[in-house]
Write a structure and sequence with these properties.
The chain is of the alpha/beta class. Helices cover 49% and strands 17% of the residues.
Length: 342
């Protein structure tokens, strides 16, 4: 009798296990597999952070989820336009929507595209900076106005009677905004606005000053390797006034230049709408992949110091920052990715 009861109990347990296990296994399998035969084409944008992120996500999706992945060349306007009209590329892992605000919002509302998450969780950075060692020596230098009052600390090597502000490279939108602020803050009498000629020349000037522990006032943006490598302090430029900033950056605006902080541009993971429908595991993955400005800047330092391309920078991130990316995926995906790292 006892044997019979035990047999019944065992049979019931086995039956329950047989009934529930396939569902549980299916759920686990769905969570760690691609779930679609469609190619997940990922846009590799032209700037370093977006390029590195494209390779990070491509590696995880291909080796961890078994997706068919293709990295395609991209840039903000053509990528978003193609995504809106053709549903390709599938994903743009760092899409700055400020430059495409109206068509992107319309596309989201129409259900053509989706925003799966914030690529940069604490927003992009843009503004004027000084080295922390300068601020530590002069604690009052927390705002642009305070720094402007001390041109002697930031002397122009070619005109010692004036200070020097290192501006944005010519032809970039930030050249307009920086020049407008220079005018609005009435700096012309005691400061020179210095054009570095190129992004590389600006980086070299900043690196030289930090290496020598010299004062420097410079425009910069993030996430970037420069802000990851050097301890720079962003100056307070007051409140952000979108209308003033719009005029400052519009060559056809007739209003006088005004004082405003640089706005933080949204940087999102944008995707064609079909990704959510046909590849929910991929969409779920991208809903978790946000990184902070500091984290992205730090990953770019490796590329800058080692002259590594986006693929090598991504490999280094996956090898050294498992504590970050492992939170995006199931444990079995982590193991698959690690096993495939060269």
């Amino acid at each position: 009798m006892i044997y019979k009861s035990g047999g019944i109990a065992a049979a019931m347990t086995l039956a329950l296990f047989s009934f529930t296990t396939p569902n549980a296994l299916a759920q686990d399998d769905t969570a760690s597999s691609c779930g679609t035969d469609r190619t997940i084409d990922i846009a590799e944008m032209t700037w370093p952070s977006a390029a590195a992120l494209a390779h990070i996500h491509a590696t995880i999706l291909e080796t961890g989820f078994g997706c068919d992945v293709e990295i395609v060349t991209g840039d903000t306007v053509p990528t978003s336009s193609s995504m809106l009209t053709r549903g390709t590329p599938a994903v743009a892992p760092e899409l700055w929507t400020s430059a495409i605000e109206e068509p992107w919002a319309e596309g989201v509302a129409a259900g053509d595209v989706v925003q799966l998450s914030d690529a940069i969780t604490d927003g992009t950075v843009e503004g004027w900076f000084i080295p922390r060692y300068v601020q530590e020596a002069h604690p009052e230098l927390t705002s642009a106005e305070a720094v402007i009052s001390r041109p002697d600390l930031f002397a122009d090597p070619e005109e010692s009677g004036k200070g020097r502000l290192y501006s944005c490279p010519p032809g970039w939108a930030c050249e307009l905004s920086t020049s407008a602020l220079f005018e609005a803050l009435d700096m012309d009498a005691t400061w020179n606005l210095f054009s570095p000629g190129s992004g590389g020349a600006l980086d070299a000037s900043i690196a030289r000053a930090f290496t020598r522990e010299e004062p420097i006032l410079f425009y910069y943006w993030g996430p970037t390797a420069i802000l990851g490598k050097y301890d720079a302090v962003q100056l307070d430029l007051g409140e952000t006034q979108p209308e003033v900033y719009a005029c400052n950056t519009d060559p056809d605006c007739d209003a006088p230049a005004g004082v405003t902080a640089y706005p933080s541009s949204p940087a999102v993971v944008g995707a064609a709408a079909w990704v959510q429908e046909d590849a929910p595991a991929v969409a779920d993955y991208f809903s978790k992949v946000g990184l902070t400005n500091a984290e992205i800047s730090e990953l770019l330092v490796y590329g800058e110091e080692n002259q590594a391309d986006a693929a090598a920078t991504a490999q280094n991130f996956l090898k050294t920052k498992e504590e970050l990316w492992s939170t995006w995926v199931p444990a079995e995906v982590v193991e698959k990715v690690k096993a495939n790292l060269s």
